[in-house]
Design brief:
Layout lengths: L1 H24 L9 E3 L7 E7 L3 E7 L15 E2 L2 H12 L3 H43 L5 H29 L4 H17 L3 H11 E9 L2 E8 L1
Parallel strand pairs: 1-5
Antiparallel strand pairs: 2-3, 3-4, 5-6
The structure holds zinc ion (ZN).
Zinc ion binds next to loops.
Length: 227
């Protein structure tokens, strides 16, 4: 135990150092680590460009190529003020479809939670029974064969119940509609105060898990996935 936790502390420190060091060399953009191409699923990259009309500007582009050299046609986009205004609106006015999905997930989660509470009691009972079984065998009350048979049955049931609890923990990590609105409020405050790209990036990451980019013709579509 002691070994593990000190190991973890060291790893954490190394990671932090690496992050600090790489940050000092890195160009952080508002969308760093957040923008994904819808056509191929890869992360978009940011490149600086320069022309007379726009001066120096940053574009988001998908460079992904498959092993055979083919790639999806995905046009990039200059990340100008209009782009960020559109993105901001997209983020703070949550898509009704997403809200509905989150609500449905929430009610499903409550149903599962109720079932789990019952199953948890069952799990306790199974564990107690397994203990008893071990004791009976220790006290020479049952044969080895009977012990092994019953133990296998109990162990299977316990495993099944434990797997079920894991699913519920995973589902519980989903946000609720209230949490998303609360985080949107926090995001707006942070975004309004943010001056640097790095501060904007931090504000976005508090609320957004990823933003999926797609362009068809002249139409750019951004899909926001909330944390
Ligand atoms: Zn792509």
């Amino acid at each position: 135990m002691v070994k593990t936790s000190s190991h973890e502390v060291i790893m954490e420190r190394l990671l932090k150092n690496r992050m600090l060091n790489s940050n000092s060399r890195r160009n952080i953009f508002p969308l760093s680590g957040l923008l994904y191409c819808e056509k191929c699923g890869s992360r978009m990259r940011f490149r600086v460009g320069e022309n007379k009309k726009q001066g120096q500007h940053w574009s988001a582009l998908c460079y992904h190529q498959f092993k055979d050299g083919s790639k999806f046609e995905q046009r990039g986009k200059v990340m100008d003020v209009d782009f960020f205004n559109a993105l901001y609106d997209r983020i703070i006015y949550v898509d009704p479809n997403i809200l509905r999905e989150i609500e449905m997930h929430g009610s499903r989660y409550n149903d599962t939670k109720t079932i789990i509470e019952v199953k948890e009691q069952e799990l306790k009972k199974q564990r107690r029974a397994l203990d008893k079984l071990h004791e009976s065998y220790e006290e020479d009350m049952i044969t080895k064969q009977l012990f092994l048979e019953r133990k296998a049955v109990r162990a299977r049931q316990i495993q099944k119940l434990e797997d079920l609890s894991k699913v519920v923990v995973d589902e519980g990590n989903y946000p609720t509609v209230e949490q998303i609105y609360e985080r949107i409020g926090e995001f707006r405050e942070l975004w309004d105060l943010a001056l640097s790209s790095e501060e904007k990036n931090r504000a976005l990451k508090k609320l957004v898990e990823r933003i999926v980019y797609n362009q068809e013709g002249n139409r750019v579509e951004l899909t926001v996935c909330y944390r």
